[in-house]
Amino acid sequence: MQYGRNDMQEWQAIMSTTSDEKSLIDFRSDTVTQPSPAMRAAMASAPVGDDVYGDDPTVNKLQDALAERFGFAAGLFFPTGTQSNLAALMAHCGRGDEYLVGQEAHTYKYEQGGGAVLASVQPQPLEHEPHGGISLERIAAAIKPNDIHFARTRLLALENTIGGRVLPAAYVQEATTFAHARGLLTHLDGARIFNAAVKSKAPVNSLVVGFDSVSVCLSKGLGAPAGSVLLGSRPTIESARRWRKALGGGMRQAGILAAAGLYALEHNVERLAQDHDNAAYLADGPRELGLGVVPPQTNMVYVDIPERHVQPLTAHLLERGIRTTIGARTRLVTHLDAPRAKIAAALHAFSQYPNWST
Ligand SMILES: Cc1ncc(COP(=O)(O)O)c(C=O)c1O
C-alpha cells in the first residue's frame, strides 16, 4: 500500500500520541462516534417539552423535517432503530400475522426476534439476492394462501443499505409494486438510507417511494448519540405511537436528543461521501496483502480473514489501539471519527502483523 508523505507523518504523530491511550480508531461500527462539541451545544440549548404529550418543539421539528424530506405524512421519534422497526411491524401486523424478511436483515437476525417475542408476528426469513434484496419469485412462493393452517402474510420488510450495499432502485420499485399487488404492506429499515442516497446521488425521497413505512437512524453514519424516526401515513404513525408507549419508548424532554438529529441532518449528510471514499481507501490495504475483500459500495468493508489469524490479529490490532470485530468475514466500518490519516495508521499496523506469511 502506498501512503502519501503527509499521511505517513500524520500517522506517526498519531501513533506516538495514542499508544498510551490505546485508542487510535474503532472500525466496529458507525455507531461508535462521539457527538461533536457543536452537536452537544445544539443539544444543550434545545427548547424542550414533554413529548408524551406531544409538547416537545424540537422533537416535533425533527419529525416534521424528516417527514417532509422523505415525502411522508408524519414522523415519530424513537430512542432506537430496533424499537422503531418493531413499532412499525406492530402497526402493520397483528397477532398471528407474518412478515417476509431477508435472512440477513437487521429486523430478522439482529433484533432478538422482537417481532415474534413481543408482537406475536411470525417472521418468514428468505434468502437474499447478491444485491441484498429478495427475488420476486421467492416473495411470491412465500406468501401463504388464505387457509386456516397458515399465518396471514401481511408485510414485506427490506433494508437499505444492507451490509453496506445499496438496493438497486429498479428492484425496490418492482418489489414494492409486486408486494402491494399481492396485498402486502411494505416497510423499509432505512437505518443507513442517507448512505444509499449519497452513494446513488439521489434525493432520499426517491429511494423510499413504494414503502408504507421507513425507519431512519440518526445514530449511525449521521453521528447523533441516539434516535431514529419512523415515517409513514398518519394512521400508521398514530398506531406506532400507541405501540411505542407500550414498548417503553415514550420519552419526556426528548428534544435534547432530537436536537442532535437536527444538527446531524444539517451538517453530517453530505459528508457521508467521505466515509465512502475512506472505505474504498481502507479496502486497498487488505487487498494488497492478498486477502479477499468485497469492494465497498458505501461505508462497510468486508474482509476474509483466515481462521488461524482471527485471535492473534485481533490482539495485534488492539495493542495498537485499533478496535475491530475480527472474524472469518470481518466488517470494517468507516465513520466521522475515522479520518483518513487514522485509517492510514491503522493500515500500516495491519500490514505490520507478523504472521501474514504463516
Ligand atoms: C440496519 C440496521 N437496522 C437497525 C438497527 C438498530 O438500530 P439501534 O441500534 O438504534 O437499535 C441497526 C443497528 O446497528 C442496523 O444496523
Structural class: alpha/beta
Total helical segments: 15
> What's the overall average pLDDT, rounded?
94
The shape is globular
Query: Rg from C-alpha positions?
Result: 21 Å
Low-confidence residue ranges: 1-5, 14-20
Share in helix: 40-55%
Largest sheet: 7 strands, mixed
- The strands making up the biggest β-sheet line up spatially as 2-8-7-6-5-3-4
Instruction: Name the helix and strand elements from N-terminus to C-terminus, one letter apiece.
Output: HEHHEHEHHEHEHEHHEEHHHEEHEEH
Folded structure, characterized:
With 358 residues, the chain is α/β, with parallel strands linked by helices. The chain has helices at residues 5-18, 37-44, 57-70, 81-92, 106-109, 114-119, 136-142, 169-181, 193-200, 204-207, 234-246, 255-267, 272-288, 310-319, 340-351, and strands spanning 25-26, 74-78, 97-102, 122-126, 152-159, 185-190, 213-217, 228-232, 293-294, 300-304, 322-323, 329-333. The protein has a 7-stranded mixed beta sheet, sandwiched between helices. β5 (152-159), α8 and β6 (185-190) form a beta-alpha-beta unit. It is globular. It starts with a helix and ends in a 7-residue tail after the last helix. Pyridoxal-5'-phosphate (PLP) is lined by residues 31, 80-82, 106, 159, 189, 191, 217, 219, 228.
